[in-house]
């Protein structure tokens, strides 16, 4: 597969990087083929990747280097479904604290939203989006417009790894209705269909899963509120330390500090030392808005506090900056389809 066959993106974003544990998954996948250790070691040396640091979460590798590693790996193995083999080589540690936070989430939608919000931890070119429909939800796997070139195999691996983690670590099945990929149809097409357990549509306009809406309320078997809180803290610190926080991440932090006062856009923009218009523009570039970030934060905290802390509905309403309990009840029903009282039953 030549570089001309790969997706193109603007290459001005020189700082784009991927957590080294993904390169570790590539190494494990290569070792599962009939590749000699000498050949694998030479491949990493050719791309100036320090194999001794592949399990070091603080070691991040430029995306341009990772793209070359992906393409060289396909050439070495002769397998254009290599991304799927890498997905089968990942574990929760591949995603650092994000893997454990997703597993500890209460339901699948919460887990997916957590992956979307923190995908920069894995690679800061990731730009995921979730569209909620009445009968199905669609999860889009995009990369940011300013990203350097990305190999198809990297996208294959990321999409497939979410399925692998769900099946083998969360002990659950994700009911896929459709799998769409931008990439050309691979020679090893059957491998894709078998992995996703559904015929994959190639040459699509987007990389996307369609998932049956029944997955929305399903309780994650590995749900653990204490583990979730601990890993949320680790993720937040990691993103800040490595300067990977998105505008939406920063907005969430300021919303948290404004509460229990009403967290209006004006207050948050003032704290961020920018105009409301500029803040909205930055959020739009991340495929979100202030209202979406605020709603997601409030919903997450409301469900957490109602389920795990024993706080009353009025206490939760006040803590989240609602003017009155009825406004909170209406918002909660819009988010979840249930009233707070129904959630507590």
How would you sum up this structure in a few lines?
With 345 residues, the chain is an alpha+beta fold.
Characterization of the model:
It contains 16 helices and 7 strands. The protein has 345 residues and is α+β, with helices and mostly antiparallel strands. It folds into 2 domains: 3-215, H-NOX domain; 246-344, Arc Repressor Mutant, subunit A. The strands form 2 sheets. It has a 5-stranded mixed beta sheet. It has a two-stranded antiparallel sheet with strand order 1-2. α5 packs antiparallel against α6 and α14 crosses α15. The longest helix has 19 residues, at 290-308. The N and C termini lie far apart (56 Å).
Average pLDDT over all residues: 90
Which spans of ≥5 residues are poorly predicted at pLDDT below 50? 1-5, 8-14
Query: Helicity range of the residues?
Result: 40-55%
Tally of structural domains: 2
CATH homologous superfamily title of the largest domain: H-NOX domain
Strand content: 5-15%
- Reading side by side through the largest sheet, how are the strands ordered? 3-4-7-5-6
> How many strands in all?
7
């Amino acid at each position: 597969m030549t570089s001309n066959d790969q997706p193109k993106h603007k290459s001005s974003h020189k700082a784009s990087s991927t957590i080294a544990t993904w390169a570790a998954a590539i190494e494990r996948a290569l070792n599962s083929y009939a590749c000699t250790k000498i050949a694998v070691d030479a491949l990493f040396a050719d791309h100036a990747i320090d194999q001794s640091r592949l399990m070091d979460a603080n070691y991040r590798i430029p995306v341009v280097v990772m793209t070359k590693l992906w393409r060289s790996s396909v050439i070495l193995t002769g397998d254009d479904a290599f991304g799927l083999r890498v997905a089968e080589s990942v574990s929760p540690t591949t995603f650092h604290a994000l893997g454990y936070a997703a597993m500890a989430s209460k339901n699948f939608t919460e887990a997916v939203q957590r992956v979307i919000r923190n995908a920069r931890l894995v690679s800061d070119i990731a730009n995921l989006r979730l569209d909620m429909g009445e009968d199905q939800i669609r999860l889009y796997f995009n990369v940011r417009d300013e990203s350097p070139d990305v190999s198809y195999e990297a996208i294959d691996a990321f999409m497939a790894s979410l399925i692998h983690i769900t099946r083998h670590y969360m002990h659950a099945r994700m009911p896929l209705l459709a799998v769409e990929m931008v990439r050309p149809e691979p020679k090893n097409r059957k491998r894709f269909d078998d992995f996703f357990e559904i015929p994959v549509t190639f040459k699509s306009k987007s990389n996307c899963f369609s998932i049956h809406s029944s997955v929305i309320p399903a309780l994650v078997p590995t749900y653990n509120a204490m583990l979730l809180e601990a890993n949320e803290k680790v993720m937040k610190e990691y993103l800040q330390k490595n300067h990977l926080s998105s505008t939406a991440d920063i907005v969430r932090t300021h919303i948290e500090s404004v509460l229990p006062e009403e967290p209006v856009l004006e207050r948050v923009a003032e704290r961020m030392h920018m105009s409301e218009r500029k803040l909205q523009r930055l959020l739009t570039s991340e495929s979100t808005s202030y209202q979406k970030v605020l709603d997601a934060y409030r919903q997450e905290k409301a469900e957490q506090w109602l389920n795990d802390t024993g706080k009353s509905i009025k206490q939760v309403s006040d803590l989240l900056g609602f003017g009155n309990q009825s406004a909170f009840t209406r918002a909660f029903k819009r988010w979840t389809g249930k009233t707070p009282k129904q959630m507590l039953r």
